[in-house]
């Protein structure tokens, strides 16, 4: 019997699906159908274990995640006709560097290459599973307007597809009424029940949550740079504060996830080049409760609270819950200060990086009015140079990896164009 404390891949994907759908529901609803088609094709093919099929179906639901980057945001409906390689390449690099499914990044990279393209160009990074994903992607698009006559349509245009893939589709449909289930919607429950067969570890939960957190980079580069520094500064403060190794790891993870709720904040507010209006600020503030809700019911309440409650203030004037004093743990207080420091040091279109003296003055002012922890703030101030030096060094590798995606993206795009 399954323990109540266990979390399944079904729950993780539902959480990510719910969060990203808050931005736009077109791609992941398409992703659900493609994942279900892949499940049936892979089973009919019989070459992969159930564990491998689970992972391939998980990557399938996120295969268009690259289309969420800002440059693609207004092309969601036409991504297959307008620069289709762009989002496939960017999405594959995101999966490669910022997800627990990194070993499958070539599947995403390949999903806009037809078998014909592969045959003509013989590119060595093409993935066989990616080619099948391309076929599944096509099935969904054809099904959307051909419905019950989907297979007949594909048979009449079989020169465009591998005959092996068409035979897989016919076999899968005969065994499991694939097309009928797509039409009546019953595929959804079956797909999620399949993901429900896999329990995930705490480490996997954290890894998938980080994947969601970093997906914000498609909408706001400044938010990701801020998050990277929050994680590094919070960790350095926590070390000097004398916390044990397990708690230090909790703080690192919580800091990485602290702004996860910003995925649902409109880009016009996230990237506004100036002061927010009162109405816009209220919308921005909602990221705290959104993040709290995203991470609830995943058995990581400790990390959820440390990360998403970083805007609570000791005097009770913070949000989302108006906690005060003893309600706010030392770990939460540390990440709160890490968040403030990173924001003050960040460069935005409307502000330069604040210098040391100004950062210290703001922190002291906040302690005077009982907004943040005086002892932790003083610990940071007394060790300012050391903490900033170590945090900069610690975050440099991750920052470089993030920034280098652009170079790798451009190089791959040239190779495929």
From TrEMBL:
EC number(s) given by UniProt: 3.1.4.52
Pfam families for the chain: HD, HD_5
Keyword Repeat: no
Family matches, as InterPro entries: HD/PDEase_dom, HD_domain, HD_GYP_dom, HDIG_dom
Top EC class of this enzyme: hydrolase
Ranges where the HD-GYP domain occurs: 201-396
Keywords associated with the record: Hydrolase
Single GO MF descriptor: cyclic-guanylate-specific phosphodiesterase activity
NCBIfam families: HDIG
Protein name in UniProt: Cyclic di-GMP phosphodiesterase response regulator RpfG
Gene symbol of the encoding locus: rpfG_13
């Amino acid at each position: 019997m399954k323990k109540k404390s266990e979390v399944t891949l079904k729950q993780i994907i539902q959480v990510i699906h719910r969060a990203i759908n808050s931005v736009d529901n077109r791609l992941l609803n398409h992703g659900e159908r493609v994942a279900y088609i892949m499940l049936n094709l892979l089973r009919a093919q019989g070459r992969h274990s159930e564990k491998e099929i689970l992972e391939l179906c998980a990557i399938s639901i996120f295969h268009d995640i690259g289309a969420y980057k800002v440059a693609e945001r207004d092309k969601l409906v036409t991504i297959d006709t307008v620069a289709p390689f762009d989002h496939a390449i960017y999405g594959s690099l995101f999966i490669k560097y910022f997800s627990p499914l990194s070993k499958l990044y070539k599947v995403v990279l390949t999903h806009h290459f037809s078998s014909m393209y592969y045959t003509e160009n013989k590119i060595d990074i093409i993935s066989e599973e990616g080619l099948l994903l391309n076929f599944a992607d096509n099935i969904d698009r054809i099904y959307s307007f051909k419905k019950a006559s989907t297979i007949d349509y594909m048979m009449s245009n079989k020169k465009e597809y591998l005959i092996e893939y068409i035979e897989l589709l016919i076999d899968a449909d005969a065994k499991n009424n694939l097309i009928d289930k797509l039409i009546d919607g019953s595929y959804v429950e079956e797909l999620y029940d399949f993901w429900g067969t896999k329990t995930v570890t705490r480490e996997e939960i954290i890894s998938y949550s980080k994947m969601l957190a970093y997906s914000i980079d498609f909408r706001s580069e400044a938010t990701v740079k801020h998050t990277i520094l929050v994680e590094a500064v919070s960790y350095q403060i926590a070390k000097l504060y004398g916390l044990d190794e397990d708690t230090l790891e909790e703080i690192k993870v919580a800091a990485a996830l602290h702004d996860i709720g910003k995925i649902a904040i409109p880009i016009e507010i996230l990237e506004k080049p100036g002061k927010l209006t009162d109405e816009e600020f209220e919308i921005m503030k909602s990221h705290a409760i959104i993040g709290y809700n995203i991470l609830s019911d995943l058995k990581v309440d400790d990390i959820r609270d440390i990360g998403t409650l970083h805007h609570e203030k000791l005097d009770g004037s913070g949000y989302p819950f108006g906690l005060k004093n003893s309600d706010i743990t030392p770990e939460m207080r540390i990440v709160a200060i890490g968040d403030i420091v990173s924001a003050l040091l960040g460069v935005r279109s409307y502000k330069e990086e604040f210098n040391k003296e100004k950062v210290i003055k703001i922190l002291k002012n906040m302690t005077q009015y009982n907004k943040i922890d005086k002892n932790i703030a003083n610990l940071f101030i007394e060790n300012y140079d050391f903490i900033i030096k170590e945090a900069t060094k610690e975050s440099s590798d991750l920052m470089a990896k993030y920034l280098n995606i652009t170079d790798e993206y451009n190089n791959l795009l040239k190779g495929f164009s």
